[in-house]
């Protein structure tokens, strides 16, 4: 990333893709969790949903993307952008998720500091689009309408009476620009009977949550309809500071902004809203039945991902990470195995997964929010075993990365190198460890682990002690400013 690009955000004559990467996607639990939400997973293709989103506008006449994400995901987001060659991006960090309206307001205020007339193409990071070429074609009249001061949204032509989406009713066409319509109204997720009626009229469209507008238009409409929100977010942007290659919004101001979606805040109120009917293979990837619907199926209608074996099984979705999962003589099931949690359900109950997550969270179980694999700026760790007074982890440290200089009061650690070359600080000594070599870190010993090679460093860490919590870390130096 280029920190100069982060601060100046040049080349404002081009529309700026604004990617909102918030939310936990709890209906896709146990894969999607707050610590590692669905947009950061490869659920539809070999690329993650975030990567697919930012790549849509690359080499299409757009400026470098601006991503608004949770501060806890910053290094993972940056790494995923680097993996697909997206450079000079701007990453704005939210102190906490406040829904889409504050996120869009932050992007608009940030861009307006350079050029208020900047056109924003706002996309959620967790949706799939099958026909990117068609998407770019449909966006073009949206940009024209935005330049004329309209707040543009896109409505997907429905092919079934879906009850999981909000709807938009298209009204009279906008005379100046083809395929753009005034909006009669926005409608909440309907029941099945109402959805059938919407489908029959041909006037109702699924609300895709994709918007195009000028930064100045959004700011002006927010000043009119949600002035408190705008004031809080603008103050937060004005008090921003640069943290490595990221823009950190000021915490207190941002947290005082109302928690509200852009639909409720602006789209349903403004007289400038227009809609473009579209058909570019959009899916919100919001639940397991949707992933079954868009997935590649075998002759029996099954989608199988990972280590799975299916016999006499029909119309089911099965995803298994690292473990063998077998289905025999069943139909219409969703089975998801992530190693530390397993979900088995009737496919028709896909919308109720969120309720299960809430129940698990009330029980105080970490699986509701945290993954077995936890990403850090230096790489990630994965819990392999946990028992009384011991824990075993796998650590993967990226090339040129290093952990903080730290010590623990309540645990000792044994490190074994599985792959790569490790540079270990142990007290006042620095030691190089090759594959199959190990070292012991006693209680209260100042230590640091660094990847000294060109390949990812893979370690096995064995912790022992009466307390093994992640908060038993005292940092003395950190390359990633986590002191």
UniProtKB/TrEMBL annotation:
Catalyses which reaction(s): alpha-D-mannose 1-phosphate + GTP + H(+) = GDP-alpha-D-mannose + diphosphate
GO-annotated biological processes: GDP-mannose biosynthetic process; polysaccharide biosynthetic process
Residues covered by the Nucleotidyl transferase domain: 17-299
Chain ranges of the MannoseP isomerase/GMP-like beta-helix domain: 311-359
Keywords recorded for this protein, A-Z: GTP-binding, Nucleotide-binding, Nucleotidyltransferase, Transferase
GO molecular function: GTP binding; mannose-1-phosphate guanylyltransferase (GTP) activity
Keyword Nucleotide-binding appears in the UniProt entry: yes
Domain Mannose-6-phosphate isomerase type II C-terminal: 366-478
Coiled coil: none
Domain of life from the UniProt record: Bacteria
Signal sequence extent: none
InterPro entries per UniProt: GMPP_N, Man1P_GuaTrfase/Man6P_Isoase, Man6P_isomerase-2_C, ManC/GMP-like_b-helix, Mannose-6P_isomerase_type2, NTP_transferase_dom, Nucleotide-diphossugar_trans, RmlC-like_jellyroll
This enzyme's EC code(s): 2.7.7.13
UniProt-listed NCBIfam families: GMP_PMI
Family: Belongs to the mannose-6-phosphate isomerase type 2 family.
Name under which the protein is recorded: mannose-1-phosphate guanylyltransferase
Source species: Entomobacter blattae
Name of encoding gene: manC1
